[in-house]
Amino acid sequence: QVQLQESGPGPVKPSQTLSLTCTVSGGSITTNHHAWGWIRQPPGKGLEWMGVITKDGRITCSPSLQSRTSISRDTSKNQFFLQLSSVTPEDTAVYYCYSSGGDWGQGTQVTVSS
Questions:
Q1: How far apart are the C-alpha atoms of 86 and 99, rounded to whole Å?
Q2: Measured on CA atoms in the order 71, 96, 28, 53, is the torsion positive or negative?
Q3: Which of 15, 23, 32, 54 could bond 58 through an S-S bridge, CB–CB 3.0 to 4.6 Å?
């Protein structure tokens, strides 16, 4: 069974870069499932898709976030990463990593506050 676990910095200050890691176990990000991605949910709002990286390494990001979003991976560690630059309090959310096979991490709360 594929399991995903997010890890991140916790509180982030405005204008900083948010960096999150998704560690995958029970499967490979280069062979299991077509794509691996990030979704977030701000407080009181719905889910917002942020982007994916395919098992072949192709990256697609949400047009609304593309200028601030970077997705990458380390295949040797079976991890993929999210970086979101120039954060504001509107980026406060629970951030989830997921697979196209329907597996989700438990989510990690990121709060942007000075």
A1: 26
A2: negative
A3: 54
Residue 12, exposed/middle/buried by CB under 10 A (0-12, 13-18, 19+)? Answer: buried
CA nearest to 70, candidates 78, 57, 81, 79 = 81
Angle at 111 between CA 22 and CA 114, to 5 degrees: 135
Residue 33 clears pLDDT 90, i.e. is over it: no
pLDDT digits over 66-113, tens only?
999 999 999 999 999 999 999 999 999 999 999 999 999 999 999 999
What's the average model confidence in pLDDT over 14-37? 94
The amino acid sitting at 87 is V
